[in-house]
Design brief:
four-stranded mixed beta sheet; single chain; two-stranded antiparallel sheet
Length: 175
């Protein structure tokens, strides 16, 4: 494994059954060795400057299921079976705060809802074309006609998109 200049390795912790990312923490060589030996995950606490046995204080241990290095061996993905919430706030995952673009204040959307929103926007541009709309221009002067082809897109995409606009509502992703 390749540790950074501070001797640390980013460790992505993922729930072994659900695939949910639970946390991102750092390991030094000793934490990595103890984690790979099992049964629990160990980190290096940057704030305390010491080895940290996750769950030692809270009782919420992360039981190691598997571990794999990334393609450059400078990060590790550890799949775990948690015995309780992974976050110190009591949340299942440390990733529970919506991200926002601090300059604009816009929340970043995530997940399958984005695809449905995009589909609805494209359909709206087709049904209610407006002057200057790039998306509406893809459908040509007559919004009910097939979209114009552009050298920037594969030839098959416009007809499939046009067919989908006419026949298929967006599919809900399984939850």
């Amino acid at each position: 494994m390749r540790f950074n200049d501070r001797g640390l390795l980013p460790a992505i912790i993922q729930h072994a059954e659900t695939g949910e990312v639970l946390t991102l923490a750092y390991m030094d060589a000793q934490a990595l060795r103890r984690t790979l030996e099992g049964p629990d995950v160990w980190f290096y606490s940057r704030s305390r400057g010491t080895l940290w046995h996750k769950g030692e204080t809270s009782g919420n241990y992360l039981k190691v299921h598997s571990a794999v290095a990334d393609c450059d061996s400078d990060a590790i993905l550890v799949k775990v079976r948690p015995t309780g919430p992974a976050c110190h706030t009591g949340q299942e995952s440390c990733f529970h705060n919506p991200a926002s673009d601090t300059e604009e204040g816009h929340e970043l959307d995530e997940g399958p809802g984005v695809v449905e929103e995009l589909f609805d926007t494209i359909r709206d541009r087709k049904l209610h074309p407006t002057e200057g709309s790039y998306t509406a221009s893809l459908f040509g002067p007559d919004a009910t006609a097939s979209p114009r082809r552009s050298s920037k897109r594969p030839a098959r995409w416009p007809s499939r998109a046009s067919e989908a606009m006419q026949t298929e509502p967006p599919r809900k992703a399984p939850t």
